């Protein structure tokens, strides 16, 4: 390890150093004590040297690993703008097709959907900024699909310092997105019509959340009839799907971040496999395959740099709320009749 003595000096400045151990997992400095504030100071000191420390429990003690600090490239804002414009066009076209040739319905669909996606990713961005984590602005991804997009994302460009930050980055997007989705659902249900079931139609199964609003906002649908989904309601349905898939407790998805902030790496891996199974049972096979690939390529979620500290009580309450949100968003894949 380069600068071994200097790194050792910095660590011993803050912690009771117990030696340097080499294991099959790598090399670590073993320390006998832990202090949240001291580890934050160590992160700052080693950052100036070009290193990133990470800390976790090690038997009855703790261990600190050292990684080289990655160079962070400059963000290209023009690319964010260009992708947004293209995605706006593809989602308007998708809404136009869904509505049977109405440009204004296409615009309504695109506005509602991009609003949901934009708020979701912006919440991640501001959560990262709050905790001093470097990230890009949201990237919208255009695609020739039924909804005109593969969604949106931000690129996190620096390590996540602690479990509270990891949890905030995980839950902020789904919570903000679902809060925008709810009024979209209400407006969409109000604009939708009850019509006779026609052969060859696609059945969009409602999630428990969507079913609740349908129950209270429209009279019971008689046998042989169905709700003809307005493009805005379709955008709300997609918003629920986006929230559900992002909250799957798998790998580096939003749900995976939340689970990893609550549990250790081994439990996170088991829950990730359960998340893949849930995705398969709901019929979203392509997404399940992608999740398995992510799990195979990234065999472990390293967690936050400080993997010792615990979540605050408020965040534990939010974790319970987000579990309820996840259950309310569970939706099977559509089928044709």
Description:
It is a single chain. The strands form four sheets. The chain has a four-stranded antiparallel sheet, covered by helices on one side. Strands 5-6 form a two-stranded antiparallel sheet. Strands 7-9 form a two-stranded antiparallel ribbon. The protein has two domains: 4-68, Gyrase A, domain 2 (2-Layer Sandwich), CATH 3.30.1360; 77-336, no CATH class. The longest helix has 29 residues, at 163-191. It is of the alpha+beta class and 337 residues long. The mean pLDDT is 93. Helices cover 55% and strands 15% of the residues.
Quick overview of this protein structure:
The protein is an alpha+beta fold and about 325 residues long. The chain is built from 11 helices and 10 strands. It has helices at about 5-15, 35-50, 75-100, 105-130, 165-190, 210-215, 230-245, 255-260, 265-280, 285-295, 315-330; strands at about 15-25, 25-30, 50-60, 60-70, 140, 150-155, 195, 200-205, 225-230, 335.
Q: Layout of helices and strands, plus pairs?
A:
Blueprint: H1 4-14, E1 17-23, E2 26-31, H2 36-49, E3 51-58, E4 61-68, H3 77-98, H4 103-130, E5 139-142, E6 149-153, H5 163-191, E7 193-196, E8 202-203, H6 208-217, E9 225-228, H7 231-247, H8 254-262, H9 265-281, H10 285-297, H11 313-329, E10 335-336
Antiparallel strand pairs: 1-2, 2-4, 3-4, 5-6, 7-9, 8-10
Helix pairs in contact: 1-2, 3-4, 4-5, 4-7, 5-6, 5-7, 5-8, 5-11, 9-10
